[in-house]
Specification:
Radius of gyration: 18 Å
Distance between the termini: 42 Å
Number of helices: 12
Shape: globular
Strand content: 5-15%
Structural class: alpha/beta
Order of helices and strands: EHEHEHEHEHHEHEHEHHHH
Strand order of the largest sheet: 7-6-5-4-3-2-1-8
């Protein structure tokens, strides 16, 4: 299956009772696919996966996986930890098109240890791996040589590249290995450089515009979407995205689970204005935000 294009790491919607709202999750997944995304990611950071219990994680995997199979879309599941054995066990029976596996965090192994970790995980996995390279979360910066070594592992099909900018290593690697844009603000620049796609939480919003940008790069639209993305990360992910989705009437509550706190009204309103500037043209009726910040 072609994995090029925009992939959305889905939020997990919660109802008024605090439980995962499976019906809303399915509706959200279907809508994003209607808008042209190539695939969906379940249980990424944006899903608050660490705050879900195993039953909830299984339910999310089941719903998103079924929608993707029915629609012929690429299905990726966030998996793994900083324990190699636990990660091997988690991916061994995974029913997905790919597993998004983070570089081991907190323990900060050597780069040789990172390569050894992924060799073991790839050998155990039932699905190909996308390496999630996100140094500001893992505390581990990978050299150009290590990225190339990881790309050479059988079963590794790409990287979610979220290194905090367009650095010299990014410029060197984007034409060599499959780097999927993972820093939403810098995604338009990576598309212009030839990246094969993006795994972008921002694409919950302005989805059709993100798809248009990937298919035919246009500098003005790239700038608008980059500016919009910046507003969505003004507070911890996915709080602002959920606030805007709720304002649009697409999820029942903007609730997140502790230790996250719901985004404030100013952050939400700034994001809504940036979304309008980016020209979200989908034919849907959204709630409007009034002067008091209340939806109506």
């Amino acid at each position: 299956m072609d994995v090029q294009g925009i992939h959305v790491p889905l939020i997990t919607p919660f109802g008024e009772d605090g439980r995962v709202d499976g019906a809303v999750l399915e509706r959200l997944a279907q809508g994003l696919l209607d808008d042209g995304v190539a695939g969906l990611v379940a249980l990424g950071t944006t899903a608050e996966a660490a705050a879900l219990d195993e039953g909830e994680r299984a339910a999310v995997r089941g719903i998103v996986g079924r929608v993707c199979r029915e629609r012929g879309a690429h299905f990726t599941v966030g998996a793994g930890s900083n324990d190699t054995r636990r990660t091997e066990a988690e991916v061994a029976g995974l029913e997905a098109d790919a597993a998004l596996v983070t570089v081991p965090y907190f323990t900060r192994p050597s780069e040789a240890g990172v390569v050894a970790h992924f060799e073991r995980v790839a050998a155990a996995s039932a699905a190909p791996l996308i390496v999630y390279n996100v140094p500001y979360r893992t505390g581990q910066t990978l050299s150009r040589a290590t990225v190339r070594a990881l790309a050479a592992i059988p079963g590794v099909i790409g990287f979610k590249h979220a290194v905090g900018g367009i650095d010299a290593d990014t410029v060197a690697l984007v034409g060599e290995v499959p780097l999927y844009a993972g820093d939403d603000v810098f995604a338009p620049a990576l598309f212009a450089m030839g990246a094969p796609g993006g795994i972008l939480a921002s694409a919950h919003l302005g989805t059709g515009r993100w798809v248009e940008l990937f298919r035919a790069y246009e500098p003005g639209l790239g700038h608008e979407l980059s500016a919009m993305a910046a507003t969505l990360f003004a507070e911890p992910n996915p709080t602002v995205i959920k606030a805007v989705l709720h304002a649009q009437g697409r999820i029942p509550t903007p609730a997140v689970r502790l230790p996250l706190l719901a985004a404030g009204g100013p952050a939400r309103e700034t994001a809504v204005r940036a979304l309008a500037a980016a020209g979200d043209t989908r034919d849907r009726t959204y709630a409007l935000i009034g002067e008091t910040g209340q939806t109506r």
